[in-house]
Amino acid sequence: MAQLTHAGYLALRRFPALDGLRAVAAVMVVFEHFGGKTWHPVAGWLGVQLFFVLSGFLITTLALREEGRKGRASVRNFYLRRVFRLMPVYYVVLGATALLYYWRDEWQLTAMAEVLPYYATFNNEYIAYGHVFGHSWTLAIEQKFYLVWPLLAFAAGVVPLRRRLGIAFGAIALLVAAMTVPFYTHGTSSYVVILMGCVLAIVLHDPKGFAVLRGLTRPWLGFVFLPLLVVVQFSAPWQIGLTGSDTSAVLSYAVVMCLLLPSVLGGGPLVRFFSTRPMAFVGERSYSLYLVQQFAAMFVMATFPMFRVERTFTALVVTVVALLIADLLFRWVEQPMIEVGRRVVARLGRRAEAGKNAQVAEPVVLEPVPLPVPNPA
Question: What is the pTM of this model?
């Protein structure tokens, strides 16, 4: 398949390969956490950064396309969709995890009472890293980012491309500067990674920007950048040892991911591979899979003592159990609550439209009341 045109890119209603990439990212993280030392050189934790790039790209693209259709992107509707998309299943898994620790009489041992306020308010990165439910720090990063990004990029209506790119690059510069001081919080580099996905979305949405990057949409380039992504991933432990920080590994991985992404938007063998039914199934459930992985591991290790040792087979079993639970959450929590969010957004939209119509309605013209004519004398 040839490279995409800008019109062809804008005509795409879905990017099916993104489901497969999310599936790979989620499984990578599970194997990193429960696969033991065998998987540590693979640096599966970088799957989180893959999530961040995809998130920034996809959410910004959707907002830009809404703006193109309606004249402006609704920040209110954006927040509503985020709330109904992320929070219900997050709090269900958090509640189930807390109850499980309480039932196992490990409430005090895990200091759950102390960390719950951080989890409940999405301040996980300040306390939770390396702690119980510690992988949820990524949700705190995303929630903070998407609290600010729509206000900067879309709240003022149609913001010129140069201003949006200026905002994004300015924020990247500030965050990179913040990473040079000793007190920056865990995950600061991840804000940069999300912004890189946002920048890619802005550039591809603009005709001139797309013309610059059009060469990257050639499907065969995926066979160049995907192996390069794997090389960068395997080099992560070496980069960390060299620099004493994961920043170099995170940013280099995100850069290659941004180079890869345009090649898997249209078509080609890689798109077909990442769009297969198993990939789509796991990718659609990747959010719940990511959230529930620790809960599933606790169940597996408590039920089957043979899996209490972290190794490849343990990670595989945890992945399967987590996927089964994630499927239930996807069907009974995620999808129903997303639909509720859509109905709320649609209802508010109808009310706003009705209000506009009432304001522009034809004014009622009252006939003048004739003055009484005095009787002649």
Answer: 0.89
